[in-house]
Amino acid sequence: MSEVIFSGACGTVTGSCTHLRWGKTSILVDCGLYQGDDELEQRNWRRFSFRPHELDAVILTHAHLDHTGLLPRLVAEGFEGPIYCTKASRGLVSLILQDAGHLQEEQARYARKKGYSVHKKPKPLYTAKDAVRTLKLLKPRVFDHAHDVAPGVTFRYSRAGHLLGAGSVEIRAKGSDGKHRTWLFSGDVGRYGVPILKDPEPAYSAPDSLVLESTYGDRDHKETNPEREFRKTIKKVFQRGGTVVIPAFALGRTQEVLYHLAGLVESGDLDPKDVFLDSPMAIKATDLYRQAKDEHDEELAEAIEREMSGLGPDRFNRCRSVEQSKALNRRRKPAVIVAASGMATGGRVVHHLKRLLPDERAAIVFVGYQAGGTRGRALVNGAQTVAIHRETVRVRAEISILHGLSAHGDGPELQRWVESLPGRPKRIFLNHGEDPARKVLAAELEQRGFARPALPYSGTTVKW
Ligand SMILES: [Zn+2]
């Protein structure tokens, strides 16, 4: 019996996980955390539909928490096999999982103190120790080569352009009828023609089946010029003596923001001494981005050559310690503060927002998707007040959102990627997208002559 069981990210954009079985051999592609409202987060506590200790391996597409964040729980429940990832992913996975382990412990402590948890004795989903044990199982593999994952099963990575080290995964194995088949898992697909990573690449062979993400399957990212937008906002805000706060995800988005800010420095529109990168995790991720030369596109490679990439340690101020971060409160001159988290749900950016939201000279520029229920979404929707640390904070600062920095391709880009494959897949499955998005993408693909895509739900099982 050879089958594929869709487990996570079906009709939603988090909790990516697919279970593949060939007789007694079984592997996972991704093991992600559900993120969002309470209903989604409760799913992180559900029993796995397989026995962790019976899995032979896990293959990761990329480091984001919605693709890796349940690995420590898998390990805590008995998984001991290899976890394959690309070389560049390894560093980011280490950063993100260690952080996640501490965060889980912190949340459980907080819930215990406040007595609001649904569990009688709030315990963390997993601990920082579980995360460290997980990192020991990481086995980095290079792009573009076939690697063994289990007897008779091989896999190969091609670049997906979405995040440093992000890959699509092509898996080849025999079906129950003895014939070899190839399944291609797109992972998250990035954008074409934008700095700072290489564009998504087509896979090597025509897959029999394709599992395609559909996050923005119903969206058309408008042409925007982030550098021009930043220039306009910063000039205006500095003239009125205000500070610009950019809440940014530590991995990926921060590095793109720094790259564009460096462009403003180069054109003489910004003094690098006025820019502060205030996030220890983002600082570490920025160093990983700078070092991973194989992943850079031409724009970034050239900028690094000229020492104008914005990713170097000397370009902008870096606040590692809490004291350095707090010192920004005493600054009287205008500044640009880049800090995590991207949806203002936690991290140091929350402190800056508490101080600067009531300041009508300030501007807050969001640079990515703001999920429902987050502070970022409330602000973008025009909230007059927000709650921060149980205080009501008035919003007088200017709030804006810059759409051009998305890490996900839009509908036309996803179609372009499918059309770039060496052959047409016989079957297509759309996951990692909400129903409206995947329905639109399914209709578009069918119109272009592709096999009608299936929209699997959690538990949907199909033959290999
Ligand atoms: Zn991702």
Describe this entry's structure for a reader.
There is one protein chain. This protein is α/β, with parallel strands linked by helices. It has helices spanning 38-42, 65-68, 71-76, 87-114, 128-135, 226-239, 253-266, 280-291, 298-305, 322-327, 349-356, 375-380, 411-420, 435-447, and strands spanning 2-8, 17-22, 25-29, 57-59, 83-86, 138-141, 146-150, 153-159, 167-174, 180-185, 209-213, 244-247, 275-277, 317-318, 336-339, 363-366, 385-388, 391-394, 398-401, 427-431, 461-463. It folds into two domains: 2-219 and 407-463, Metallo-beta-lactamase, Chain A; 226-405, Rossmann fold (3-Layer(aba) Sandwich), CATH 3.40.50.10890. The strands form four sheets. Strands 6-5-4-3-2-1-21 form a seven-stranded mixed beta sheet. A hairpin with a 2-residue loop joins strand 7 and strand 8. The protein is globular. Zinc ion binds at residues 62, 64, 162-163, 188.
